[in-house]
Amino acid sequence: MTRKPRILIGKIGLDGHDVGARVVAKALADAGMEVIYTGLRQTPEQIVSAAIEEGIDVIGISILSGAHMTFFPEIIALLKQHDAEDIPFIAGGIIPAEDIPLLKEMGVREIFPPETLTSDIVRFVKSLVEP
Amino acid sequence: MWDREELQELERQVRAWEKTCLEPTLKEKLERRREFQTDIGLEIKRLYTPLDLSKIDFDYSEDLGFPGQFPFTRGIDPTMYRTRPWLIRAYSGFGEPQTCNERYRKLVECGADEIVMAVDLPTQLGYDSDHIMARAEVGKVGVAIDSLHDMELLFHDIPLNRLKRVSMLGNSFAPVALSLFIALGEKQGLKPTDFVVDLQNDVLKEYVARGTYIFPIRPSVRIATDVIGYCARYARHWYPCTLCANHINAAGAGSTKATAFALANGMCYISELLDKGYDIDEVAPLFTMFLDERSDFFVAISNFRAARRVWAKVMRDRLKAKNAKSMSLKITAYSHGGETLLEPINNIVRITLAALAYVLGGAQFLYNASYDEVLGTPTEDAAKIAVRTQQILAHELGITNTIDPLGGSYYVESLTSEIEQQIYDEFQKVEAIGGAVAAIEKGYYVAKINEGAVRRQREFDAGARVAIGVNKYRTESKVPFGAFRIDPAIETRQVERLHKVKKKRCAKIVRETLGYVREVAEGDGNLVPPVLEAVRAYATIGEICGVLREVFGEYQAREYFSPSE
């Protein structure tokens, strides 16, 4: 029997708004995935080491504070450093449209702004974890 | 109030209308929906008549009364907006103090009554700009403040007495926020009697929504009530605590539960103050409530009216307040929620209508979101529109000419009574759990918030929660770029400024005042006087909060939320 896909949903930096993160976590859990929610104020190091230790299949980060252009490249670099760049990294929150192509170029697999249907997120995550 | 025979006659007429007029119509064409449900779980009827009011024993004198009198349903003041419209607030802040000062001056110039400082997250969490945790966050989501020096730059050429009020949220470090204003006033040659400060200083909601807690819950309540107590003695015309339903509703609770939780949080602060020896009539007038309802115009109006009634009754009957000022609830509101990324100009319409509801509900203090806030830091033009919208509502349309214009509406009065009951019932539930702190620790608030958040998202996904231009009447359109960028170099400049301040000040006085902060924190005296001394000596927010962190420890968030349940 194959195990359930394991997803990490995390909040990074000091931002305390986590409604979106919780709603997405719940939707993924309802879709049959195992979801670990980190809670607030995580650092890139904490996210990456949790992802490796827990055998995470997809990392999802929520951020509304505008600090994504610093933290996201750090997560990607840390994943590379730990030979874990095969763990896909997706994100959501208040991320200006002009930053999205830059972040994708750096290796963020997808960015989900507000007004995204949760079914679109679930479908995308499934496409990442299904063989 | 109702004549029995007249009611019977009316009931007969309603039945006749249903049979001869309504039913044939319904046979021909169905209504848009089978049920008209609100976000707070109330079902809205097709039509409201005097019969609905008679069913709830509606009584004009008891349920409404007159403005400025118990139970304050129609408003807290005998003339309301006829004397002066609500106070127009502008919530703003970004980047460095000097740049932000220019924005503030423009907002004041176009008629904002109050500046509400948005400060960055390191400031809100008691970290200086050079702290490791402040990395990448300096000057984002608000202006960076490290010490009194930054306040001097931020309010350069804006004397605090030129504003009707001045504000900072200051939820977890309220003694510092309060002291920064007192000390800034001193620098401007003003005494606390010369100007008015208001703070949010409602730390309890931070543990369940918004998330900017620092210390464990108990010491946080003490810190919050020290500030309220200090103002009760030395600045009675200030507003040191705003009970926030807003964030709890925004997070998902729904407006009636959020109002009840805010009320329960208020009871926690008040009982702590009573334990400290204050009299109820000394502290109750210092509280305001921050209410909102974003998904139903009429529920919003009724929520404000109902909240005033609940507050008045709780103050009089439970807490035995005698002073009318203790029983009359002053309301703050923020017009936001429902803004969309797509076609953001439409947000002006959404924000305007929310503001209109809050005005019809009789708010005292109002601020509007900028229509482009969903895209990033608001542009100057958008920030100005947020103020202009309120001025148009206040002066162009006759909205402010009479008091409580919807009072007496069968619909609004029915809703007001139903909502009052809902708030009261939910408040009782929290009390039965053991009050606000127990409800937080046992995960009750968070459970209700999560339920609502998930339900709202499902409604949006299913198209039942409509966002025009997004999930209804959508056209090919792209999310526009945010027009405003924060200069990434500000972090370096802010840190340089912080180090300069540290070099210039008297290290000995800073050390002594911080020692005094520690001494009082370890005892049970009021924290404001020592913190004020430290702020005057240019001790930084990080240093003061650092001492408090050492004394009180930090809140270790227990994650009440398990997605798989």
Spell out the CATH superfamily of chain B: Methylmalonyl-CoA mutase
CATH topology of chain B: TIM Barrel
User: Helical residue percent of chain A?
Assistant: 40-55%
Principal-axis shape of chain A: globular
Question: Which CATH architecture of chain A?
Answer: 3-Layer(aba) Sandwich
Order the strands across the largest sheet of chain B as they lie in space: 4-3-2-1-8-7-6-5
Structural class of chain A: alpha/beta
What's the CATH class of chain B, please? Alpha Beta
Structural class of chain B: alpha/beta
Alpha carbon gap, first and last residue of chain A:
14 Å
Biggest interface goes to:
A-B, 37 and 48 residues
Oligomer: heterodimer
Instruction: Enter the CATH topology name of chain A.
Output: Rossmann fold
Q: Output the CATH homologous superfamily of chain A.
A: Cobalamin-binding domain
Write the layout of secondary structure elements.
The complex is a heterodimer of chains A (131) and B (565).
Chain A (H helix, E strand, L loop, with lengths): L5 E6 L7 H12 L3 E4 L6 H10 L4 E6 L4 H14 L7 E5 L6 H7 L3 E3 L5 H12 L2
Parallel strand pairs in A: 1-2, 1-3, 3-4, 4-5
Chain B lengths: L3 H25 L21 H6 L4 H5 L22 E6 L4 H13 L4 E4 L3 H4 L23 H7 L10 E4 L5 H14 L9 E3 L17 H18 L6 E4 L1 H8 L1 H21 L4 H4 L3 E5 L5 H22 L5 H4 L2 E6 L10 H15 L4 E4 L11 H16 L14 H24 L2 H6 L2 H18 L28 H15 L2 H16 L5 H9 L4 H12 L13
Parallel strand pairs in B: 1-2, 1-8, 2-3, 3-4, 5-6, 6-7, 7-8
Descriptive account of the structure:
The complex is a heterodimer of chains A (131) and B (565). Chain A is α/β, with parallel strands linked by helices and 131 residues long. Chain A has a single domain (9-126), classed as Cobalamin-binding domain (Rossmann fold, 3-Layer(aba) Sandwich). Chain A contains 5 helices and 5 strands. In chain A, β1 (6-11), α1 (19-30) and β2 (34-37) form a beta-alpha-beta unit. In chain A, α1 (19-30) crosses α5 (118-129) and α2 (44-53) runs parallel beside α3 (68-81). The longest helix of chain A has 14 residues, at 68-81. Chain B has 565 residues and is α/β, with parallel strands linked by helices. Chain B has one domain (61-461): TIM Barrel. In chain B, 50% of the residues lie in helices and 6% in strands. In chain B, α4 (97-109) links the parallel β1 and β2. Chain B starts with a helix and ends in a 13-residue tail after the last helix. The chains are: A alpha/beta (131), B alpha/beta (565). Chains A and B meet through α1, β2 and α3 of A and α5, α9 and α18 of B.
